[in-house]
Write a structure and sequence with these properties.
404 residues, alpha/beta, Rossmann fold, Dehydroquinate synthase-like, alpha domain, globular, binds nicotinamide-adenine-dinucleotide, binds zinc ion
Length: 404
Amino acid sequence: MITEIRSLHEEREIEYESVENFTKIALTADSASYEISVGTGLLSGLHVALECAAGGRKYRPFLVTSSNIWELWAERVRASFPEAGHPKVLFLPAGEKYKRINAVEALAEQLAEAGADRDALLVAFGGGVIGDITGFLAGIYMRGVPYIQVPTTLLAQVDSSVGGKTGVNLAAGKNLVGIFNHPKAVLVDLELLSTLPEHELRAGLQESVKAGIIRDPALFELLERERERILAGDTALLGEVVAASIRVKADVVAQDEKEAGLRMILNFGHTLGHAIEAATGYKKLLHGEAVGWGSIAALHLGLARKSIKEEEFARMANLILAYGPLPRFRAKPERLVELTASDKKTRSGRRAFVLPTGVGSVEVVYDVTDAELIEAAGKMLGDMTRLTKSGLRKSGFTNSGGAA
Ligand code: NAD
Ligand code: ZN
């Protein structure tokens, strides 16, 4: 039963309906429109979801995953299919280092060997790595076959499975090769999170904190209020957090699919976050953890520019820490800022920077200087030292903007 359907804004927007533990969010962008279903036990409907995605046409399902995920969830996936219609499973080793063009080629070869033609329908069953690769593969195999996303990490559920960005890394940098290619549908089963290591859950939640900071004060408050239960894996609360985070992303993508403007706000905390990942060789911190530190630096910049008040700084920085602990790392602020130069968001030397303007609002600015960024990065690194000394868990930020 549909209990609620509403449009978030007057202009063309996303619509969603909520039915107890099941939420459906419809994303309508220029080049595609599809539904994101969020709920518990949705895996059992995978076969039906594929039938819908195929739109009555004959299709052959191919599921891309990693063996560690498959070992945990194969039975549940298989149970959704009739005996004769099981998907063929293609494997990719787990890990960011496999998000490379040769993995796409290897999977394409496997598809070809299995006789996949344009009737193939791919399923990305994994975290962001699997999702990004499968979406890219689907876009280029036989010049394009449909795919659906079944994200299995929190990060993939709230972020990477929605919005159609797909691709792989180069030695020169992350996500430098890819295409926009939306899935036919996204199936977000919260039960999948039950096997996710806790630090992966916490790191993914940094993207939800980001969604709250940039556009959703109610989500921000929910994350503040229900921290303990969310981190303990309360499915109903996680469902609320995941759905709200997806709504933020879907809402932004619906208005600016190709990142001409508004979509850049999703990059809050990512300018320095990406630099931190690069400076630490993509090994020491998970993406969300690097974004957490990058967000704290962005908050310092906001404080320096007086675009946020000290108490707002403290509230937002403390929420980021509350979903930590964020691992420490060593880097010079100058080096981090140097590394931001290769960020894709820099165009013709103009750096787009997402500046916080309040709890739930940001602004994209183009006049942030290297000196300002170095100062903000320095302050964030200073916080790291102080907070770690005094015990990350106990301490936080005071309203005077400093680490206590
Ligand atoms: P990931 O895909 O590497 O998954 C993290 C680890 O968790 C892996 O070892 C994986 O095998 C394991 N795992 C996955 N699901 C599990 C489960 N249910 N139970 C137990 N283990 C499980 O990492 P991620 O954080 O999901 O994704 C990161 C990637 O997403 C990056 O490559 C990043 O560039 C990309 N990304 C893409 C977008 C986008 O818009 N396309 C947005 C954000 C991030
Ligand atoms: Zn991110």
